[in-house]
């Protein structure tokens, strides 16, 4: 078995046994390779960010947290190429661009033969002009949204006036190639949209932010008719209705 298929098979072997750890010797026998090869493969998985860990002592070995990984997903070559191409086209300053980049690398690494070559060639033909949004700002916004914490902003409005704001994030809006943080602004006591490339500084405060209805904050604005992208619609549980939420 080649190394790339073996790495994926290692992950699934550990998932199947979880939470029980497996020894290097058992994994080596399972894949008919040396224990040294298994050790190298496990270290490579750790370096790639796969949540594998070693447990020392009697009854120890290697294990994986199944809640932190996904089971195998069988993409067709066309689906895999479409995903790699879409991720390659993502603006480097857009929210979660770092995760998109590593996801693209994992998809590409899982492909082989003509499908891999076609995806790489197509992705190489896509270029993008980066927006001005700083990586530190993007990271702070991502963290505040993920952890539901209050965010402290320094913001430039359309005429260049700077103000400091405390905001309670509700979600993200994309329009005309720009990204906006939609939030309840404590300074203005109202819902506001903050263009990411106009945020000059952002820092999570650690204070829990109360939940806000994203659609309610958009009411009365030019984005009142915003809809969830079709690709994200499938993530909403069947039967769930109501306003758009982050």
What can you tell me about this protein's structure?
This protein has 246 residues and is α+β, with helices and mostly antiparallel strands. It has 3 domains: 66 residues, Arc Repressor Mutant, subunit A; 48 residues, no CATH class; 92 residues, Roll (SH3 type barrels). Helices cover 39% and strands 22% of the residues. It contains 9 helices and 7 strands; from the N terminus they run H-H-H-E-E-H-H-H-H-E-E-E-E-E-H-H. The protein has a 5-stranded antiparallel β-sheet. A hairpin with a 4-residue loop joins strand 5 and strand 6. Helix 4 packs antiparallel against helix 5. The longest helix has 15 residues. The C terminus is likely disordered. InterPro entries: CBASS_pafABC_assoc_protein, HTH_11, WH-like_DNA-bd_sf, WH_DNA-bd_sf, WYL_dom. It comes from Kitasatospora aureofaciens. Pfam families: HTH_11 (PF08279), WYL (PF13280). This is Transcriptional regulator.
């Amino acid at each position: 078995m080649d190394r790339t298929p073996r790495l994926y098979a290692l992950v699934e072997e550990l998932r199947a046994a979880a939470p029980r750890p497996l020894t290097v010797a058992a994994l080596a026998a399972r894949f008919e390779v040396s224990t040294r090869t298994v050790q190298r493969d496990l270290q490579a998985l750790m370096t790639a960010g796969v949540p594998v860990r070693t447990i020392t002592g009697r009854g120890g070995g290697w294990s994986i947290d199944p809640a932190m990984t996904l089971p195998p997903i069988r993409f067709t070559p066309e689906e895999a190429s479409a995903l790699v191409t879409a991720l390659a086209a993502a603006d480097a300053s857009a929210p979660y661009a770092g995760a998109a980049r590593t996801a693209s690398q994992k998809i590409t690494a899982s492909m082989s033969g003509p499908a891999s070559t076609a995806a790489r060639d197509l992705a190489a033909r896509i270029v993008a002009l980066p927006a001005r949004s700083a990586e530190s700002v993007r990271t702070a916004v991502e963290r505040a949204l993920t952890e539901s914490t209050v965010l402290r902003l320094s913001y430039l409005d359309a005429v260049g006036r700077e103000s400091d704001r405390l905001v309670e994030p509700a979600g993200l809006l994309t329009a005309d190639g720009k990204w906006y943080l939609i939030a309840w602004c404590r300074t203005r006591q109202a819902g506001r949209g903050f263009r990411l490339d106009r945020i000059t500084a952002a820092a999570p405060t650690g204070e829990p932010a109360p939940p806000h209805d994203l659609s309610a904050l958009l009411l009365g604005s030019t984005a009142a008719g915003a809809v969830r992208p079709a690709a994200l619609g499938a993530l909403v549980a069947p039967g769930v209705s109501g306003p758009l939420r982050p």
